[in-house]
Amino acid sequence: MDVEPTNDTLHIQFGQEERHGPRTQGNDALVITALLANYEIERVFIESGSSVEILFEEAYDQMQLGNVPFEAIDTFLCGFTEEVVHPKGMISLPLTLGTTPLRTTYLLKFLVVDSLLAYNVILGRPMLNTFRGIISTYYMIKFPICGGVREAPTDALQAHKCCAEAIIRGKKRTLEESPKTEDSNERGKDTVPSPEPNKETPAIVLLVEELPTIELTPGDPEKVTKIGSRMTEDIRNEVVNCLLRNQDIF
């Protein structure tokens, strides 16, 4: 059954006896298995540096969610293999964490993205804040619910496989994009540097928005600044008025 989260303050602790499964060598990512829209999804990467939740297009296609509304979104993401990525859209799906009989479910917004990363889903800060989750890469992720604390154990082997697959995908793409050389001495050589063991490019995801420009002094191109585009009209007016009142400090 799904249990409503509690509003009570609980102490969340991790102990050595709570270690789950085998541990590979190296500092692997925090990877779990979660229930998303009633689909059991493996390779779910917990990334506290991400400001959004991500559902990768390959997993989205396999889930066959044609009946779920798909929202268009006019924004960009940066952080994927040092590229700026335009999401395919946004979708709202129920995410369930925990194990039977005690689980917690929340409706979260996911950006659908096509990328070379080896994960199916990235869960970021919005999820952690919604579930009030506490993470430990050494142990697991825990969160409070009515009646106690539940956990989503980490999967170190899946994390290691994701790391290895990401290296292979990145190397393959680099080879495909590398210009061919006519130098016979270089022909047949692999010019891609060997990756360091257990080394993975961080998958930190940040939203990129177009920031409107505010003229502090009309007609003076040097007296301008930018503000966020997601404020309400009232807050935006307050911010603009504050900037105009204090333009002498710019």
TrEMBL record:
PANTHER family the UniProt entry points to: OS03G0439900 PROTEIN (PTHR33240:SF8), OS08G0508500 PROTEIN (PTHR33240)
Chain spans, region Disordered: 1-24, 174-199
Biased composition regions of type Basic and acidic residues, renumbered to the chain: 174-190
Comp. bias intervals (Polar residues): 1-10
Organism: Sesamum angustifolium
CDD domains tied to this protein: retropepsin_like
Domain of life: Eukaryota
Protein name: Reverse transcriptase domain-containing protein
